[in-house]
Amino acid sequence: MIAVLGAFDGFHLGHQRLLRAAADLALKSGGEDDWGVVTFTPHPGNIVRGRKIPVLFTDPERDLLSRYFRIPATLKLPFSRALADLSPVAFLDYIEDILPLSGIVVGTDFRFGRNREGDVALMEKEAEERGWSFRAAESLVIGGEKVASSSIRNHVAHGAMDLAESLLGYPFFFTGTVVRGEGRGKKLGFPTANIDYRAEKVLPKRGVYAVSVYVEAKWMPGALNVGVNPTFHTGGGEVRAETHIIGFNDSLYGKEIFVFIEQFLREESKFNSPELLIAQMEKDVRDAMDFFSAKKLNHERLYELFASTMDGRS
Q1: Is 301 exposed, middle or buried (0-12, 13-18, 19+ CB in 10 A)?
Q2: What 8-state DSSP symbol labels residue 205?
Q3: Is residue 165 part of a domain?
C-alpha cells in the first residue's frame, strides 16, 4: 500500500497534489487502488501544542471528502502523547507494524516524530532502507500564499470565503442536523434551518453569507446568518448558524443538510425595529439569489459531483 501521511484537516489543493502523487505511484506499481490516506484524530496540534485547534472539517465531513476524492482507503490513527513522543524512526516502525507499506508520500515540509525531529531527508533515507517507494510533493503556492490548512482557517474566521475557496478548490462547507430554534424567523417571513454547528469546527466571522444548500436531493440558494441575533438578544448569547433556504418551506427538523458558504454579504447588525430588519433580510435574499444564479453556472459540475457523493452514488 502507498500511504499518504498527514493531518489532512480537509483536502485542500496542496493535499490534492499529494493524492495524485500517491495514485500515480500505485499505478506504476501495478495496483491502481493500492493507496490511501493515513491521518490522525484528534488533530495532532491539539496534543503537541497543548491547545485546541479548530478544524476545517469534522470527521464525518472528512469522510465525505474522502469519498468525493475517491480515496481508496483512509486510516485514522488515534493521536496521543505517547505517539507524539516516539522518535522519528520509532514512528515509522509503528506505521510499518500496522500497515503493509510499499511506499509513502508526504509534502516537502512534512515533519514527524518527537519534537518534529524527522524531516523529508530522513523519511527518504528510511524509505530506501525499508524498500519503500517514496515521493515528496512540493508545497503549492497560489497568489503568493502557501496553500495550508492554517491559512484557510484564518480566511474562514475573517469571512474571506472566496480566499478560502481559492485554496481549498471548493467552497468551505458544513453539514449538520436541523434543530429547533426560537421560531422567530418564520414569524418574520424568513423561516430558518438552525444547524447544530459542531464546536470543534472553525466558525466563520459573524455576519450574513450567500450559501448553496443541498436539501432533499436538490441544490437551493440560501442566506446564512452566523451570529447572536442582536436585534432581539441585546445582551448577546450563543452564536448560531441559521440558514434561510430561499423558496423552501417544508419542515427539516431532525434532518441533515449540507451548506456551501459561498460569499460574505454583510456584517451582523442590530436594527432598531423588526421592520428595518425585514427590509434588510429582503435585500439579503435578493443578493443571495443573484450570487447563487451566477455561481451555479461555474459550479454546476461541482454541485453534481458533491450531490452524487452525498447520495451514495459515487
Answers
A1: exposed
A2: P
A3: no
| 136 lies in the same domain as 241 | no
Paired with 78 in beta bridges are 41
- Which residue type sits at 128? E
> 0.70 cut: is pTM over it?
yes
For residue 257, is pLDDT > 90? no
242 is catalytic: yes
Burial of 47 (0-12, 13-18, 19+ CB in 10 A): middle
CATH code assigned at 107: 3.40.50.620
CATH at residue 298: 2.40.30.30
> Kind and range of the H or E element at 36?
strand 35-41
234 and 112 within one domain: no
**C-alpha cell at position 67:** 469519498
Considering the domain architecture, whether residues 81 and 176 belong to the same structural domain is answered as no
Domain holding 276, by residue range, is 171-310
**Whole-number Cα distances in Å, 96 to 80, 130, 158:** 18, 9, 41
Each residue's pLDDT tens digit, 172-210: 999 988 887 665 556 666 778 888 888 899 999 999 999
Catalytic residue from among 124, 242, 262, 282: 242
- Give the three-state DSSP class for 312: coil
